[in-house]
Amino acid sequence: MLTLTNAKLFDGQKMRSGQWSVTLDGDRIAAVSDAPAIPSGETLDLGGMTLMPGLITGHFHPDFYKFDFATAMRGDQLGKELPPGVGMAMGVRNCRVLLESGFTGYAGAGCAHDIDASLKIAIREGIIPGPRILACGHHCGTTADANAAMKWWQAYQTPGIDVFADGPDAMRKLVREEIRRGVEVIKIFASPGHLIPGHRGPQNMAYDEIAAVVEAAHQRGAKVRAHVCTKDVILQCVELGVDIIDHGDEVDDECIEALVASGAFWVPSLTFTKVLIDMGADATGEYVDAWTRLRPLLTKAHKAGVRILIGDDYSGLLRGMIPDDPLDHVVGAYGRELPFYNEHIEGLSAADILTWGTKNPGELLGGPAGKVGVVETGALADLIVVDGDPVADLSLLARPDEALKAVIRDGALVIDRLPQQSRRLAAA
To answer: Which of 133, 5, 55 is CA-nearest to residue 335?
Structure first.
């Protein structure tokens, strides 16, 4: 057993007053107490540092790392720019970046070559350290949709990140094949938008095709997430039971009501939107419109009970175009979203926004195995130790090199920067 004592405690929803002790037994939190700890096994005195759930990103592409803007503009198929083994190496690298940034979990948002599922196996088998993963797979779309490679005369023996089917029956088969390959959340591209061009119409996937995807996924215990930006298609997705709305650029009051009623998650991913505006890459004004409308709506949505998640399209796509690309896979980048939203969203506390990276995504990743994203008895022990109070200063979570002192995954210390004098063993 391991007991962490003399800690400030953010429990996934609020910062609790006083000093706390949390006891771990294997991969579980065995006790949470504001009474002095009775030594049993190893004890770590945190000396007033903050113990909190490990952060979780709700939108992550593990193999988006070497895909550059020039490649995108050439119309090459995403996921074919390098061999599959190199893509897996990128995933291993980015899993380590997540841990070193204080992130102990991610919900996949699309990858090529079964990389999420493969990473999950490698972590489970003890081959590499890594976060808790809700595995995604290919981007599922339809023939000639906005993701179809512009170079139609180039055929591939195997897919990159995109696969295509048409009609409800073909969609059901596609979903079941994804699940057979270890996918736990199906990714569909229901509409264009959010840098996906709309020259082929406002809807990528027909209503009956979306319905078939959701039905087939839910029958097998999988979830569905949709890249969807246009209002009508957002409402269709929510009505049909899509679990996660990615981007949602045209979300409005009616959409918020639908999200509340359905219990769906929403990943607004506004860092990407703001970067494009700052680069002057908004010829139509659609990103300024989304940025202006969505910020007050995020406050309204949170207060109404929508489960908002942090997460964005980290890729390094803009690595050579802007200094200190906020969407690069570097230590500290993922945590920048928290102070970013705190700065730009009015009417919400830092603790409110912190739930977007703890309790809310924990409800997405949690399941029969146990709760995550919270510090409570019985929850899985995915935790971090922060030197300082992140509720008073969310930027601490964007500076893990300075502030992150320990990362605990499934009850085991995978990053340990705590002072040696904080350790002691109970007397025999």
So the answer is: 55
